[in-house]
């Protein structure tokens, strides 16, 4: 462990840095492994430019958090990978694309949140303080097989809109209203289903 001047000393002013060095197996001279600058920045494998700065030119910079036999890791190249229990669950690419369940998020569009499940369905579960937050609350967007579900688990409506105006409404009992007034089911097209027969009304 070495303590060196870090900056320009003056009267009652002696800035210092600490360097921690080890000698690798098979080497004859020590290598600096960690540096603490006078301003408190800590560098592992580098002279730090941020409060905690980790550099590894041999592999990838990596942090492991462990409790008992279970652990999670964060590691980075140009991308960032989150690995709960040692398996990559989320990837943030350098261009801003995010993958959950995939390390290669792709899309036909410029920025993407790509969710992949290799063994079943993938979903987004949306809840709030009105719906509650359990498994059976809120709304799900689900990709299951080749089917896509918009699944409102509440006794509420599903609304579709453009230009900040409701264009289609599906009520909790299955009535569909289409048109500029569909939020109040007084649109240009109303489809009713009483369980046995269906009717189409032009409002």
Question: Number of helical segments?
Answer: 0
In N-to-C order, the SSE pattern is EEEEEEEEEEEEEEEEEEE
Distance between the termini: 84 Å
Shape: elongated
Total E-strand runs: 19
Q: Tell me, rounded to a whole number, the average pLDDT.
A: 89
What percentage of the residues does DSSP assign to strands (E)? 35-45%
What is the chains' assembly state?
A: single chain
Widest beta sheet: strand line-up? 6-7-8-9-10-11
Helix content: under 10%
As residue ranges, the low-confidence spans are none
Structural class, judged by helices and strands?
A: mainly beta
Strand count, sense and barrel status of the largest sheet are: 6 strands, mixed
Please state the CA-atom Rg, rounded to the nearest Å. 29 Å
Describe this protein's structure:
The protein has strands at residues 2-5, 16-22, 31-36, 42-44, 52-54, 62-67, 70-76, 80-84, 90-92, 98-100, 113-115, 122-126, 139-144, 147-152, 158-162, 165-170, 176-178, 189-193, 198-201. It has 203 residues and is an all-beta fold.
What is shown here, in short?
0% of the residues lie in helices and 44% in strands. The chain is mostly beta strands and 203 residues long.
Describe the secondary structure blueprint for this structure.
Layout: E1 2-5, E2 16-22, E3 31-36, E4 42-44, E5 52-54, E6 62-67, E7 70-76, E8 80-84, E9 90-92, E10 98-100, E11 113-115, E12 122-126, E13 139-144, E14 147-152, E15 158-162, E16 165-170, E17 176-178, E18 189-193, E19 198-201
Parallel strand pairs: 4-5, 10-11
Antiparallel strand pairs: 1-2, 2-3, 3-4, 6-7, 7-8, 8-9, 9-10, 12-13, 13-14, 15-16, 16-17, 17-18, 18-19
